[in-house]
Design goal:
The complex is a heterodimer of chains A (about 400) and B (about 150). By secondary structure, chain A is an alpha/beta fold. Chain A has 17 helices and 14 strands. Chain A folds into 3 domains: about 180 residues, Aconitase, domain 3, CATH 3.30.499; about 100 residues, no CATH class; about 120 residues, Aconitase, domain 3 (2-Layer Sandwich), CATH 3.30.499. In chain A, the strands form 4 sheets. In chain A, strands 12-11-10-13-14 form a 5-stranded parallel sheet. Chain A has a 4-stranded parallel sheet with strand order 8-7-6-9. The mean pLDDT of chain A is about 95. Chain B has about 150 residues and is an alpha/beta fold. Chain B has a single domain, classed as Glucose Oxidase, domain 1, CATH 3.50.30.10. In chain B, about 20% of the residues lie in helices and about 30% in strands. In chain B, helix 2 links the parallel strand 8 and strand 9. Chain B starts with 8 loop residues before the first strand and ends in a 5-residue tail after the last strand. The N terminus of chain B is likely disordered. Classes of the chains: A alpha/beta (about 400), B alpha/beta (about 150).
């Protein structure tokens, strides 16, 4: 890769050991993809829950925090994806002390490096949405696909070590979705069904993700009858990224960048039956053990809708609703948290269900059969041993009240 | 991207990739035309594929050369390959038809050998269980003599 004077100084250690470690890692990745140089970034978002890091990852963060006399800091605004717990609710989740200790160590190290512990996967709704053409280095695939597709900003999937490195160097290798060539449509898909609920939007995203099939595919989608809102696109994109590892899509006539899809033959037609088939594949037992609304974290509007559904109910099964530390105070102040709690639900902040030791909390609580309106969540949790049901928020709330679907 | 240029296949015993990272390794190939995500697909404590719908469910991946279609899922694999490597519960190498940045970042961070990008479907060209040598310097996967 071609390096400028500052980058060369970083690599040679003239600016400290920490930038040297960071840029050396980035060069390995850039070389793999044939990047010719670096692109400066304005924001960084780090996925760093401790179930993923383990002891080894936390120790690495701590080593960075100690290096250079403890003076190394990120060079651009750098925020975090959800943590692996809501400390105030950890006992109710059945999390073990060692999990919380690991979380505290990771937080201390990241904060020492100057990272802002935002603990959110909906930063485009709650912190600062990037603007068209802005180059960023974001973790969480749902954040990246929204950033590229809806905002018209530019990011690759930046796994934790690369995102930490981008924060410490203020740049990222210029490959993939930082290049114009990667952002044009590679397949054209017509949909004959416009979803109405968030689980339908997620399921449609999942169907398209499977059709697209890999990171370098950019679907251009036509045929939607309405312009989706931010929450709909959040579920749509998060599921597409989850099922297909897709990092960018175009909605023809709606999203900001030119797709150039008119040069492509129609590759697929997606019908309502296709969307229903995906949801039917995640129709577990009639009986359930737990209801979870998470992945992505809920917006204030989603919590409002949930609170309305909770009014006058009494749940016989746990219902967990997960939101960001930015939304939670508003939900508290506006009485939404209290209304959900009055029915027996629990509003959690700053975590995400699947990033919070999902296997261990299933064992601790006897949770096996899980209902949710998140297509992303059902796709992930199979590997953690859950039998999942994908259904609307309304049906999931009904199930929390009766203990079963039907 | 920009999957870089082309690759060549020399005979039936050596396959050349477009991208490579890591050290030379030899091991038994675990082959499936399926995806890979450390978070979605693995029980990382037991060292087995755990996703019920995965073609390799129930099989141990530890020390094996995984020959799979593509990278799937989220960004967690970048941390997880490193964590798995430190516990000695990691594949010997990862070989893909196509790969996403997350697994490359994880391979770079965790010191895991990886090849990606072939002429043809690599999962149909390497026999399941074959002993293979991965050489990132030459970007090759080589079937060992008894497998040819």
């Amino acid at each position: 890769m071609k390096l400028n004077d500052e980058e060369r100084a970083m690599l040679e250690g003239e600016l400290g050991r920490v930038p040297q470690i960071a840029i050396a890692h980035q060069i390995k990745v850039g070389d793999f993809f044939g990047a010719t140089d670096f692109v400066p970034v304005t924001q960084v978002h780090i996925m760093a829950d401790t179930e993923s890091l383990g002891e080894a990852g936390v120790a690495w963060l701590e080593s960075l925090a100690r290096e250079d006399r403890g003076e190394a800091r990120v060079r651009v605004p750098t925020i975090t994806d959800p943590r692996g717990t809501d400390f105030s609710k950890a006992t109710r989740l059945g999390q073990a002390p060692w999990m919380l200790d690991l979380e505290r160590r990771a937080i201390e190290a990241l904060a020492h490096l100057g990272v802002l512990m935002s603990d959110t996967c909906i930063n485009y709704q709650t912190i600062q949405a990037p603007t068209r053409g802005e180059s960023v280095a974001f973790g969480d695939t749902g954040v990246v696909i929204y950033t590229n597709s809806v905002c018209g900003a530019r990011s690759n999937f930046e796994g934790g070590p690369s995102a930490v490195s981008a924060g410490l160097t203020g740049r990222t290798p210029r490959y993939g979705f930082h290049l114009d060539a990667a952002r044009t449509a590679t397949l054209r898909i017509r949909v004959g069904f416009t979803p109405r609920s968030l689980n339908d939007w997620g399921a449609l995203g999942g169907v398209i993700g499977r059709l697209a099939g890999n990171y370098w595919a950019v679907p251009a989608i036509e045929g939607l009858a309405v312009s989706p809102g931010s929450d709909a696109l959040k579920h749509f994109g998060a599921a597409m990224a989850s099922f297909g590892s897709v990092a960018m899509f175009h909605l023809i006539g709606l999203t900001p960048e030119e797709s150039r899809a008119d040069r492509l033959p129609l590759a697929h037609h997606v019908s309502e039956a296709d969307v229903k088939a995906l949801q039917d594949a995640y129709a577990g037992d009639d009986e359930i053990d737990v209801v979870v609304f998470s992945a992505p974290q809920l917006s204030l509007y989603e919590l409002r809708a949930l609170a309305e559904l909770c009014d006058g109910r009494h749940f016989v099964k746990p219902l967990l609703a997960v939101t960001s530390p930015q939304v939670k105070p508003d939900a508290d102040r506006l009485g939404l948290t209290e209304r959900i709690a009055a029915a027996g639900g629990l509003v959690l902040s700053g975590m995400c269900f699947y990033q919070s030791y999902a296997r261990e909390i299933a064992e601790a609580n006897g949770w096996k059969r899980l209902a949710t309106n998140s297509a992303k969540l059902v796709n992930i949790l199979g590997g953690y041993g859950y039998a999942t049901t994908l259904a609307s928020m309304e049906r999931c709330v009904d199930a929390a009240e009766t203990g079963r679907f039907g | 991207m920009s999957e870089p240029d082309s690759c060549t296949s020399t005979a039936q015993s050596t396959f050349v990739a477009r991208h490579a990272i890591g050290d030379r390794v030899t091991g038994a190939a675990l082959v499936a035309h399926d995806g890979f995500s450390a978070r979605y697909d693995l029980d990382r404590i037991r060292g087995i594929f755990s996703r019920p719908s995965h073609a390799l469910v129930g099989q141990s991946y530890v020390g094996k050369v995984l020959v799979l279609d593509t990278a799937k899922g989220g960004v967690a694999s970048a941390w997880m390959l490193h964590e798995m490597a430190r516990r000695g519960m990691v594949p010997a190498a990862l070989v893909f038809n196509s790969v996403n940045p997350v697994l490359v970042q994880g391979a770079a961070f965790g010191g895991v050998t990886m090849l990606a990008g072939f002429d043809g479907d690599i999962t149909s060209m390497v026999p399941h269980g074959a002993t293979v040598t991965i050489d990132p310097e030459t970007r090759t996967l080589q079937l060992m003599p008894e497998q040819r």
